[in-house]
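DEPOSITED CHAIN:
***
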Amino acid sequence: MKHLLFSNSNKIFSLLLFACLGLTGVALFFEYFLSLQPCLLCYLQRFCVYFLGLISIIGLVHSKKTLLFFRTYLSIALLSILAGISFSARQIYLQSLPKELIPNCAPNLSYLLDTLPFVDVLFMAIKGDGNCAEVLWSFFGISIPGWLLMAFVIMLVYLLWALIHSIDIHSPIKDR
């Protein structure tokens, strides 16, 4: 199993990219086939997944580079995962609030971007709104941000293990 998941840097970034593509496919399925409208926190979580996929592609392109590059890409990916975890946890918190404590709903993202500066929209998205507190879909009693939180935690553990053992994984002596 260790050889299958951690044999070289290409496998690390390929599995990470595959996970990002799967998460993106599920998000697009929910939005376009089930007609579930994403909230502001959903967009931030998606951005974390997209950024993670981009880092995976760059890591694949630079897979033959030095150990420093490998560790740098893993560290940037970890930061993206940590941001995704915080956004997912924030949305789960908003979903667990009683109705009287739920913040007011905000207009849709396109309207906000047209009328407010980007930084204000970003802070509003991080804070979340009433739309973020609505549970649109659940499976086994776990909402979408709960499942995404689990995916982020699994990727976090995977990348932490890869970072800790990066010398063994990215050794120039090994066959690729």
In short: The domain at 2-169 is CATH 1.20.1550.10 (Bromodomain-like). The mean pLDDT is 82.
